[in-house]
Amino acid sequence: MKLILYQLFFIILIYGCKQKDVDTVERPSVFSLKSVFVNGKNSGFEYKELNTTPVIKLSFSSPIEKSTVARAIVLYNTKNESLPYKTTFENNANEITIEPNAPLLQLSGYRLALSDALESPSGGKLQIPVTISLKTAIDSTDKFPVLSNEDLLTLVQKQTFKYFWDFAHPVSGLARERNTSGDVVTSGGSGFGIMTIPVAIERKFITRAQGLERMQKIVAFLKDKTQKFHGAFPHWLNGATGAAIPFSAKDNGADLVETSLLMQGLLVSRQYFNGQEADETALRIEINNLWRGVEWTWFQKNKENVLYWHWSPDYGWEMNHQIKGWNESLITYVLAASSPTFPITKSVYENGWTGNGNFVNGKEFYGIKLPLGDDYGGPLFFAHYSFLGINPTGLTDKFTNYFTQNKNHSLINYNYCKTNPLSHSGYSNSCWGLTASDIPDGYNANSPTTDKGVIAPTAALSSFPYTPVESMQALKFFYNKLGDKTWGEYGFRDAFSMNQLWFADSYLAIDQGPIVIMIENYRSALLWNLFMSCPEVKTGMKNLGFQSPNL
């Protein structure tokens, strides 16, 4: 019996010792990220407005196995590429400091990803994977050599002109709607492109002979190949065949506003190529035939006292869009009144465009009185498109002084961005300008009342005649400080948002053209002088009640 008890005791003793040995073995355990500091500041897992050499300090509840860091902690850029960094371990490897090997890009997004492949020396795993968002701020260093004001203006005009010269459609010479449009050319944007040719000749970017040759090509295509509707052009055309391309489901015919922007350019070209040589004389004759062929009165839709924007051979007047002020379409009524063949009467202008004075505003915004239009003025292209040719200097009627209208509209837009009531990242007195442009998820007519946080360089740069100081400040900022993001093959890219760290890779004809033209009007009034020298325009504007030293 005693033998049995001794054996039992021995077994229990051995089992107990083994159990004790098992319990004392260190088992792997999870650990956690305790804190994150970037440049000495803690704001959770999201950090904005960082410099390009941020210092990221991570603190853990357990020491870290150094050999697991490289595979478990990865710094990514927006292209999902991993970037090299250096590490420093402190406090018995409970803390890791991470610094990028090379400076990050300004105004860019990065993420530091921590996976559960991160281990402790005992094999413990990071309990919860973590991603830390990092966004860099503006790098205030100059991205290009600093130029004088005049040299910078010339560079911007020359580079932007390339959109209409180098990137013009090879068959028609017309302007592609945007840099990804293929055969799609735009009537209004082509009108803008035509107006850049005299600028390029005068600034010696091209010769007069080259400019004339391009205009001969364009006008021959417009005359012989393009589809027209009662003399008016569609919004979009096939640059190779001249066939209308629908802008929308029922917009597959005439677009009178686009036609007027094209005619504005053609009339400028007619006035510029004024030589007595046979080729320049022939060009003027062909432009006159296109100009005289537009049946402006047809677009009164059964003789109503208003002009209509669209007419389709398939849908007639179904779009039913009256052209009424205040917007970009003053040029349409001016040219319709100036037509030598199908002129509208003053009553059409007064009832249609002005709404018998309904477009008057008169309120103040930021202490600046806005004579006409919607509150805050709308997108800035309202102050540009019609006034590429129409000189607002000293231009008045019973409603307003048109230079004051456009200047005040521009200053309201500037002050809105400077004040930045929606706290958009980047808005300032150097970074301003809201107008129609691309946005991160599409296209929008940006203005103080439709603000998406997107700045379009064309807005401030095309306002040079009205706000030369504010526009130059913006130009230097866009070029010197943001140039590595905004400047490209055809000048400034269309738009950007510092909120979303988004920079468009697009160029649009209707945004590039006004930059070249309005900078030149600021510098020399070249396009204003050419357009206002048209005798038909002088007569038409006088008939509408305008007064100006240029009429």
General description of the model:
This protein is an alpha+beta fold. It has 2 domains: 33-136, Immunoglobulin-like; 149-543, Alpha/alpha barrel (Glycosyltransferase). It is 36% helix and 14% strand. The strands form 8 sheets. The chain has a 5-stranded mixed sheet with strand order 2-9-8-4-5. The longest helix is centred in the N-terminal third of the chain and has 23 residues, at 2-24. 46% of the residues are buried.
List keywords for this structure.
Beta-glucosidase; 14% strand; disordered N terminus; alpha+beta; Glycosyltransferase; 551 residues; single chain; elongated; four-stranded antiparallel β-sheet; SbsA_Ig; Immunoglobulin-like; 2 domains; Glycoamylase-like_cons_dom
Report the CATH architecture of the largest domain.
Alpha/alpha barrel
Q: How would a textbook summarize the main sheet?
A: 5 strands, mixed
Span between termini:
133 Å
Low-confidence stretches: 1-26
Helicity level, as a percent range?
25-40%
Radius of gyration: 33 Å
Strand proportion: 5-15%
Would you give the CATH topology of the largest domain?
Answer: Glycosyltransferase
The beta-strand count equals 22
**Tally of helical segments:** 16
**Strands of the biggest beta sheet: in what spatial order?**
2-9-8-4-5
Shape: elongated
Look at the structure and name the CATH superfamily of the largest domain.
Glycoside hydrolase 144 (GH144)
Count of the separate structural domains: 2
Structural class: alpha+beta
Kindly report the average pLDDT value. Answer: 94
